[in-house]
Amino acid sequence: MAAVKKAGPRTGLKLGPEYKRAGHVLLHAPSPHKLFGRVPIRHVVLMQMRFDGRLGFPGGFIDPKDGSLEEGLNRELTEELGPGATAAYVTENDYISSWVMENPQKIEGHFYAKQMSLEDLEHLEEGALHAKDHGLEVMGLVRVPLYTLRDGIGGLPAFLCNNFIGKAKEQLLEALGCLGLMPQNKLEEAVWASQK
């Protein structure tokens, strides 16, 4: 898969009709909470457990009848997350990057990140249980632990050892870095610890 940065998400990459288009979003909110009263949470970042047992981001394939990438992504969010998805409405300003995959099928993917209030994000989590695709395409939402515990493995390093779909792991790390959701040195340490 080749990554393409800032490739005009409004119109896509214009690769041709044989490419399916997809959009996914990292939803996040600042958090004042601490784990066990001492480990700062800093930010809540959502991913989802997919129907295939892999972790990914909310979103999916854009229907040709969707007016734009963002309209298609917002439709997918409503299906997967329910009515709380209105607070997570994605616009072209939330765009981060694009990528292309040739095998096993041709896909043009677009990745976004949307900051929400913690209250709206928690409301979205509660409402997701009643979404159209809950229990079908989406098995549930998961919060990404943005810390490393004293043992050097617990938290983000252990989370990164999960099975991710496509580029979801790379997109997570890219977003954590470019959005400043985690100090760069801590992010690098977590990645290194996950590879041991």
From TrEMBL:
Subcellular location(s) of the protein: Nucleus, Nucleolus; Nucleus, Nucleoplasm
Nudix hydrolase domain boundaries: 18-174
Reaction(s) catalysed (UniProt annotation): dIDP + H2O = dIMP + phosphate + H(+); a 5'-end (N(7)-methyl 5'-triphosphoguanosine)-ribonucleoside in mRNA + H2O = N(7)-methyl-GDP + a 5'-end phospho-ribonucleoside in mRNA + 2 H(+); IDP + H2O = IMP + phosphate + H(+)
Entries under InterPro entries matching the protein: NUDIX_hydrolase-like_dom_sf (IPR015797), NUDIX_hydrolase_dom (IPR000086), NudT16 (IPR054754)
SUPFAM superfamilies listed in its UniProt record: Nudix
GO biological process: mRNA catabolic process; nucleotide metabolic process; sno(s)RNA catabolic process
Reported cofactor(s): Co(2+)
EC number(s) from the headed UniProt entry: 3.6.1.64
A GO-annotated cellular component: nucleolus
EC category name: hydrolase
Swiss-Prot/TrEMBL keywords: Nucleotide metabolism, Nucleus, RNA-binding
GO molecular function: 5'-(N(7)-methylguanosine 5'-triphospho)-[mRNA] hydrolase activity; IDP phosphatase activity; phosphodiesterase decapping endonuclease activity; snoRNA binding
Coiled coil: none
Superkingdom of the source species: Eukaryota
Family: Belongs to the Nudix hydrolase family. NUDT16 subfamily.
UniProt protein name: U8 snoRNA-decapping enzyme
Organism: Geotrypetes seraphini (Gaboon caecilian)
Gene transcribed to yield this protein: NUDT16
